[in-house]
Amino acid sequence: MNSEIRNLEPKVLWNKFADLNAVPRPSKKEERVIKFMEDFGASHGLVTETDKVGNVLIKKPATPGMEGHKTVVMQSHLDMVHQKNADTNFDFDTQGIEMYVDGDWVRAKGTTLGADNGLGVATIMAILESKDIEHPAIEALFTIDEETGMTGAMGLEGGWLQGDILLNLDTEEDDEIGVGCAGGIDVTAKRTYNEETVPEGKVGYTIAVIGLNGGHSGMDIHKGLGNANKIMNRLLFDGFENFGLRIHQIKGGSLRNAIPRESFATIVIDTIQEEAFEFEMKAITDTIKKELSIQDPNLVIEITKIDTPNTVMELGVQEGVLKAIYASHNGVYTMSASIPDLVETSNNIAKVTIENGEVIIECLTRSSVESSKMDLVNKLRATFELTGCEVTTSGDYPGWAPNMDSPILKVMDALYEKLNGEKAHVAACHAGLECGILGQNYPNMDMISFGPTILGAHSPDERASISSAQKYWKFVLEILKEIPKK
């Protein structure tokens, strides 16, 4: 299946991407891909080092005539988001990604593609392997765990890199030159509850919210996409208010940085309410589907009668949690006052798990303004603490402040216009990039981010544009030729 990928142009790029995608590389389980990169560097006789957290650095000298130019750090992350459709049988820990060509797009069969940030990694591998590409001295930095905490970038020590310019290849629109990004922080609310025995006269149901588009919780947060956890909570809240619905179990969402596409709940109601409950759920389901008909036309809400479960969560805790999730902010919180159309602050209610006497609600809050980020964190904390949850924060990482006087920005802006006959979109983004973290230990390094067009990142609808990859590859080659002299 991946043979058709290897025949795409530029072959050097797509072949390296296919090689990489044959290696399982989930976040926090990067041992195999680290070894893959170490073997790759060694096989080409290049100086290859791995730091104590697992970041890999491969060094390649300048090609003849380029020795007097500044050293470039080319950087991408090795891990990928692992998401699959509910009906897809796939083991991310053991299987390579199964890719296919769909018109101008490369897709995966029912899973995330790994183009984020695999195409960046493949680009750097192709440059390192090349015999005929003109370039200055290169430090190829492959970081780990970008998607679930940026611990690779956080663990990178000062002094390891000697480069003057950093090219981060993790932007997902080919007409964009990234000069800034949002920071982020994980917010987790937890509490316990007692399980109560279900009395006689009850009937069980499962509720499934499926078919949402999902997407990147930073880059796609402004699109008004459906959040499966908020939709499920709306259904449960209505059922509780009108029919005394009781919750046995909820499992919604999977990753903090992905807008949740699916949520599943098991509930009970009084048997005598069965007909009215089904009628009401049909009405509210139709309303929600109508509201999201443009953003999420494939939304499906399935309500199925099952054998009655034995336990439900205690009544007072259930009421408080349903109200807290309803009140908690999801989506855009504020827009930037200084950069037009840029989301400043947002929150993604990413995972909701209720089972076996424990409630766990996991969020990812992002912002390009530290004070606004903490304002939203405090709002979430207050909301969840009101219902008895213990709220903790972790994984706090800084944003990347734009430098509009960047020398490499001037080079790339001019090159883009020369190659494409139009100006690039120079912008900050609402995603979390590693540049802000790396800049803490390398404050004088000139940084920029760019990449090929990738849509649907962090979801099984992830796809990479073939024509965009060709455009991007030409841009990369020209940038390397035009790196300023020391």
| SS-based class | alpha+beta
Task: Please tell me the overall pLDDT.
Answer: 96
Poorly predicted runs:
none
Q: Count the DSSP helices.
A: 12
Please state roughly what percent of the residues sit in beta strands, choosing from under 5%, 5-15%, 15-25%, 25-35%, 35-45% or over 45%.
Answer: 25-35%
Radius of gyration: 24 Å
What characteristic shape results from the CA principal axes? elongated
What CATH architecture of the largest domain would you give? 3-Layer(aba) Sandwich
The share of residues in helices is 25-40%
The level 1 CATH classification of the largest domain is Alpha Beta
For the record, the count of structural domains works out to: 2
Largest sheet, in brief, is: 9 strands, antiparallel
Named CATH topology of the largest domain: Aminopeptidase
| CATH homologous superfamily (4th level) name of the largest domain | Zn peptidases
Describe this structure as you would to a colleague.
- The protein has 486 residues and is of the alpha+beta class.
- It has two domains: 3-181 and 399-481, Zn peptidases (Aminopeptidase, 3-Layer(aba) Sandwich), CATH 3.40.630; 185-397, 2-Layer Sandwich (Alpha-Beta Plaits), CATH 3.30.70.360.
- 30% of the residues lie in helices and 29% in strands.
- It has helices at 3-6, 11-21, 31-43, 115-129, 151-155, 228-243, 274-291, 315-327, 370-385, 407-420, 435-441, 466-481; strands at 47-50, 56-60, 72-77, 99-102, 105-108, 138-143, 165-168, 176-181, 183-192, 195-197, 202-210, 215-216, 246-252, 258-259, 263-270, 300-306, 311-313, 331-335, 343-355, 358-367, 390-397, 425-429, 446-449, 454-455, 463-465.
- Strands 9, 11, 13, 15, 16, 18, 19, 20 and 21 form a nine-stranded antiparallel beta sheet that branches. A six-stranded mixed beta sheet has the order 1-2-6-3-7-23, covered by helices on one side.
- Helix 2 (11-21) crosses helix 4 (115-129) and helix 6 (228-243) packs antiparallel against helix 7.
- It comes from Aquimarina gracilis.
- Keywords: Hydrolase.
